Amino acid sequence: MPSGKTVKLILYEALQFTAFIVPVFVIFERFARLIHNVKGQDLTTYWLVVAVSTAYVTSASLLVWVPLKYMILKRRFLTEITQRPTVLVYLMLCTFPCFAILITSSKVQVDGGHCYDHFAELPVSLVLFSLICVDIIEQIRPCRLTGQPSAAYLYSLSAHPQSHSGPLGFLWRRDGRSQVFMDTFLFWLDTVEMVRVAGEPSVYYSGWVFPVYILAFLSTLRIAITPHNPLLSSAGVALQDLPFFIIRVALIIVFGYVTPLLYPLKNVLVSLTYIYFTFLTKLRIFRSHSMF
């Protein structure tokens, strides 16, 4: 019987590899159907694109994914480069080509003057859901899946305020393993909304789809930074909130309210508060004790 650590390792690796190959196959298959329609129901073109996707997944898995996993397991990877090599490589091998195919599909349809498929819901949601799953797996990898949380985690909660007993004591219980799932989905909510806007037909069949997808992909680069790292604040403003605010204001001006006002308000408030508390409060005028 394999040990629990071995079973957990196999489970994690299988889930991450599935999250890597499934979005690529789905996106490429939808793109193959699009090219099939553009080329006048040409089956040769369809199967050619499918063959290219199979060759890409096979080569990327054998040449990059498997060697990377081997080096990580053998502790031979240079962690000075990034603390999260798996998610960084996942971005390059899965998220980037999927976004590139989405942009290409829009370009093909706009140039051809026909709207065959705007890749609205399933493929885009699948790409982001897979990215979120990879992120969650990397965060809970050090944790046990059974029993109580580790002693280190219990110690981290000791300062917040105290234990509660009695019949309703379960209402005060927290577990970081379940908290990871909620925090990760909230972390990616803004990017999810940005990609949703790109699926709007008025945006998708226009040149605005290019900056939207490019900025959405740039925001995913934050995944390479370890959670709770102080660098996340500046990276969030530089890669997400500030550029998202600019593109959302432009989209609202051009297309109307294709995105709720809540999101640009969130972007501008996060950007302004970061600038104020990080830079402006260091100025002499803001260090006066007589001010509020």
Can you put this structure into words, describing what you see?
- The chain is an all-alpha fold and 292 residues long.
- It has one domain (4-143, 178-283).
- Helix content is 68%, strand content 0%.
- It is built from 11 helices and no strands.
- Helix 2 (43-73) runs antiparallel to helix 3 (85-112).
- The protein is globular.
- The chain crosses the membrane at residues 9-26, 46-66, 87-106, 118-137, 205-225, 245-263.
- Keywords: Membrane, Transmembrane, Transmembrane helix.
In short:
The protein has 292 residues and is mainly α. The chain has one domain.
Number of self-contained structural domains: 1
Distance N terminus to C terminus? 65 Å
Q: Radius of gyration, rounded?
A: 23 Å
How would you characterize the largest beta sheet? none
Principal-axis shape: globular
Strand element count: 0
Going by helix content, strand content and strand pairing, the class is mainly alpha
Average residue pLDDT:
83
Strand fraction equals under 5%
List low-pLDDT spans.
154-160
Helical coverage, percent range: 55-70%
What is the number of helices?
11
Instruction: Write the H/E string, N to C.
Output: HHHHHHHHHHH
Structural features:
292 residues, mainly alpha, 11 helices, globular, Uncharacterised_FAM23-like_TM, transmembrane, membrane
Topology overview:
Layout lengths: L3 H35 L4 H31 L11 H28 L9 H19 L10 H6 L19 H12 L1 H10 L2 H4 L4 H12 L10 H25 L6 H17 L14
